[in-house]
Amino acid sequence: MTRILITDDEAKIRELIVKYARHEGFDTDEAENGMEAVEKCEREHFDLVIMDIMMPELDGFSAVKEIRKTHPDLPCIMLSALGEEYDRIHGFDVGVDDYVVKPFSSKELMMRIHAILKRTQRAAASGDQFVLKGLLIDYSARTVTIDGERIQLSPKEYELLVYLVRNAGIALTREQLLSTVWGYDFFGDDRTLDTHIKLLRRNLKDYASYIVTLRGVGYRFEKAD
Amino acid sequence: MTRILITDDEAKIRELIVKYARHEGFDTDEAENGMEAVEKCEREHFDLVIMDIMMPELDGFSAVKEIRKTHPDLPCIMLSALGEEYDRIHGFDVGVDDYVVKPFSSKELMMRIHAILKRTQRAAASGDQFVLKGLLIDYSARTVTIDGERIQLSPKEYELLVYLVRNAGIALTREQLLSTVWGYDFFGDDRTLDTHIKLLRRNLKDYASYIVTLRGVGYRFEKAD
DNA sequence: TGATTTCTTCACAGAGAGTTCACATTAGCC
DNA sequence: GGCTAATGTGAACTCTCTGTGAAGAAATCA
Predict the structure, then answer these.
(1) A14: number of CA atoms within 13 Å, CB side?
(2) A 149-188, residues with C-beta < 7 Å of strand D
């Protein structure tokens, strides 16, 4: 059963979405503001979150940002009032999957929900673990283990590793890595990426050599040896 | 370089999108209607297609449907006029990746382009290969394998090989090779190209003879023997 | 708030890659 | 077969890119 959390301060809008979502066979829960949404996400499992932007207590973006800390892959659809253009862009930045402009048609919203679920379920189906010999990444626990021993990675190192590993066997350009792991608008030093690769390699010990340098291009995580 | 095909019957809209897309570093081409878009997609390579729905000759949906026959993974963004709700839903059905409602802001369109490219990069990158007997080039991994054994090529050697192979069976002049692989602004020594060809041949071992010298012209990669 | 961790920047070193050059070799032409 | 112009070759040189440690800045935590 697919569970959707509907977050909006207007009860009428929540009810409307609930009605249609149930009709599509989804299980629903509601939250009145960002704070409540964050709390519910910490306690319960959801497959998708619908989130209004303008809300009392905690706005939609801050809420998504907060939720993403513990659930980095939980799909989010934002609801934005017409004209909130800045919000839209900011939304994609935070890592929102889609947004719908109010007033929206319920059919449209349902279509977008289905599209996103289809897209993310594929990724989720591939298991929430990555294993390569003695290297184990547990995505849900956000931990990395080498030969049975838990290793400590900084947030950036972990994200970098995950992106590399999820694209194992594929050459990733420096731009791709920077724009994905650091964000679309990173304009920092050229050595930032190298430095994190260095730290990551150091922590990966024997598996460091799986991160291959592609001179003039970027890096690639080897699928096998 | 990311290439985007912009399809709309209104020249003004095309120009607007072209302007912003170029600004974002994309390479662009235009089509006036669905028919032209289909033809261009068959002849040239694009990374993304932007497509208006209402057009003379061939409408957007039919065009996407047609394009998908030969390019099932080519991302498409539809442009729909306000109120064409049915179109939207139908669009997702055809397998459109996203749509933007007119009148749209250019920033919003660019954000959606970036979002989709990011999403499809992974899928698009994998499974792209060239095979000739025991010679295998994996474009996504950026690796070359000979008889099952991975060989190491320098960046220039790899690019040179890729360009030759992508134009297998076609005579390429020295000027073409230099301006494509080195860049149109290369004014170096005559021996530079030879030297790289030499190194490439050495690395290709038994397959070296596939790079044929065309005296007074350039080189050609043999399609078969 | 202060302490600690993490991230970014910077200067420099080193390795790898690219270019140039002198000369050898080859192919085509008479 | 010799001549000429073009390509092939090895080695030296130069350059560009990545790796690295250290230090300062920023974020996080207590």
Answers:
(1) 18
(2) 174
Structure tokens at B196: 């790289």
Classify residue B167 by burial, with Cβ atoms within 10 Å: 0-12, 13-18, 19+.
middle
Residue B101's closest chain A neighbor by CA? A101
What percent of chain A is helix, strand and coil (3-state, nearest 5)? 45, 25, 30
Q: How far apart are CA A39 and CA A67, in angstroms?
A: 9
Q: What residues of chain A lie within 8 A of the CB of B108, using their CB? A: 85, 88-89
Which residues in chain B touch residue A166, judged by CB atoms under 8 angstroms apart? 122
Cis peptide before A155 (omega within 30 of 0): no
HSE at residue A63, side-chain half, CA atoms within 13 A, is 32
CA separation for the pair A210, A166 (Å, rounded): 13
Residue A220 and residue A212 in contact, taking contact as beta carbons nearer than 8 Å: yes
Per-residue pLDDT at A79? 85
| List of E strands, B19-176 | 27-31, 48-52, 76-81, 98-102, 129-132, 135-138, 143-146, 149-151, 172-173
The structure tokens 């699928």 sit at A223
Q: Which two tokens stand for residue A115?
A: 């599209």
Residues 165-224 of B with CB under 7 A from strand D: 174, 190-191, 194-195, 197-198, 201, 213, 215-218
CA-CA distance, B47 to B4, in Å (whole number)?
Answer: 6
- Rounded Cα distance between A129 and A115, Å, is 24
- Alpha carbons A111 and A134: distance in angstroms, whole number: 42
Q: Does A111 touch chain B (CB under 8 A)?
A: yes
pTM greater than 0.85: no
Q: How many helices (H) and strands (E) does chain B have?
A: 8, 12
Q: Count CB atoms within 10 A of the CB of residue B221.
A: 20
Q: What pLDDT, in 10s, does the model give residues B124-157?
A: 454 577 888 889 999 889 999 998 889 999 999 9
- Residue A198 pLDDT exceeds 90: yes
Contacts of B20 (CB under 8 A, 6+ apart): B106, B107, B109, B110
* Cβ-based neighbours of A3, under 8 Å, separated by 6 or more: A26, A27, A28, A29, A44, A45, A46, A47, A48
Query: What's the one-letter identity of residue B205?
Result: K
Q: How far is CA B204 from CA A212, B158, B198, in A?
A: 21, 11, 10
pLDDT band at residue B8, thresholds of 50, 70 and 90?
Answer: very high
Q: Burial letters for B82-116: b for 16+ Cβ neighbours within 10 Å, e otherwise?
A: eebeebbebbbeeebbbbbbbebeeebbbbbbbbb
**Residue A151 phi/psi, 5° resolution?**
-110, 155
